[in-house]
């Protein structure tokens, strides 16, 4: 009999264990790297439990706009190189809901952003290396809170 596999859900507004970010002010000005390249520098950061995020100034990459990155996208921090790494692509970040500087702390806006990023993850993103999901699995199998 096989041991059940524990699957971790994307938790948008909390940093992952081991991401290395403590006090958000320590990363202001750090470069942010997507899986396929540089996206900008951190303008604001929060480390409040359940309310953690990065606001990234994209400079010329997206015509000087800012983007809101949920803390759950951060994989690690390089203090020496002053870089924060996220596990999303530049296109995924570019296609996220537009940053709203007036309402980015508003729950409705945050639900929209968190929901968008949640859809960019697949079940396999959270499986341990070498593990394979059951191809007959459904969204309800991955999230017991979803209606059946």
Helix content: 10-25%
Write out the CATH superfamily name.
Photosynthetic Reaction Center, subunit H, domain 2
- Low confidence ranges: 133-148
Q: Report strand order across the widest sheet.
A: 4-3-2-1-6-5
Number of strands: 6
What is shown here, in short?
By secondary structure, the chain is of the alpha+beta class. It has three helices and six strands.
SSE layout:
Blueprint: E1 31-34, E2 37-46, E3 53-57, E4 66-70, E5 74-78, E6 83-86, H1 90-94, H2 107-119, H3 139-142
Structure overview:
The protein is α+β, with helices and mostly antiparallel strands and 148 residues long. It has a single domain (24-129), classed as Photosynthetic Reaction Center, subunit H, domain 2 (Photosynthetic Reaction Center, Chain H, domain 2). The protein is built from three helices and six strands, in the order E-E-E-E-E-E-H-H-H. A six-stranded mixed sheet has the order 4-3-2-1-6-5. Mean pLDDT is 82; it is low at 133-148.
Could you name the key traits of this structure?
alpha+beta, Photosynthetic Reaction Center, Chain H, domain 2, 6-stranded mixed β-sheet, 3 helices, 148 residues, 6 strands
